[in-house]
Amino acid sequence: MGELELGQRIKEKRLSRQLTLKQLAEMVGCSDAHISQIERGRASPSIATLKKIAAALQSKITDFFNDGEDDEPVVMTPENRKTLTLSRWNARIQSLVKNAKDKRMQPFFTTIQPGGGSHGSYQHVGEEFGIVLKGEMSLEVKGTKYTVHQFESFYYDSNDPHSWSNDTDKETVVIWVVSPPSF
């Protein structure tokens, strides 16, 4: 999925909730021109902005990427993972479950390229756990920056402002779990 398809899904959800661009922009805290650019696929939102859009539309980020299939396999093969990615993030976030609806946690297989990351702090209800399988990542929670190395794990309250990035010149791979599903 690219920026254009994401933008179309956001627009569909906005229209189904009978919101104008201006109303959604006010709820998100940005300009209506920026929302319009996102909807037309001309701007790539940060995770923080996309999280605010999803909350304003009473959705989760994964709802914009979900194809609507509800059948959950017991075993999920790599080729069946739903990928969440936008060029601005420079990261590929793959859901390790087909649909997080009615689940208590949401696991991801995340590959972060050099320079990739959330590009801004965000927060939401819940908790997050992860383990770095390859490389290292920077994690900031409540203004404190941590470096998480290969095979080290992290855990924090998602209600606290947090951001993440790969500040190295090598790819980083992380297994990430969000509970409850809110991404």
UniProtKB/TrEMBL annotation:
Q: Which InterPro entries match?
A: Cro/C1-type_HTH, Cupin_2, Lambda_DNA-bd_dom_sf, RmlC-like_jellyroll, RmlC_Cupin_sf, TransReg_Diox_bact_type
Query: What are the coiled-coil residue ranges?
Result: none
User: What range(s) does the HTH cro/C1-type domain occupy?
Assistant: 10-64
Source domain of life: Bacteria
Output this protein's name: HTH cro/C1-type domain-containing protein
Entry-linked Pfam families: Cupin_2, HTH_3
PANTHER family for the chain: HTH-TYPE TRANSCRIPTIONAL REGULATOR, TRANSCRIPTIONAL REGULATOR
Q: Which GO terms of the cellular component aspect does the record hold?
A: cytosol
The Gene Ontology terms for molecular function here are:
DNA binding; DNA-binding transcription factor activity
Assigned keywords, A-Z: DNA-binding
Which SMART domains has this protein been placed in?
HTH_XRE
In which organism is this protein found?
Answer: Dethiosulfatarculus sandiegensis
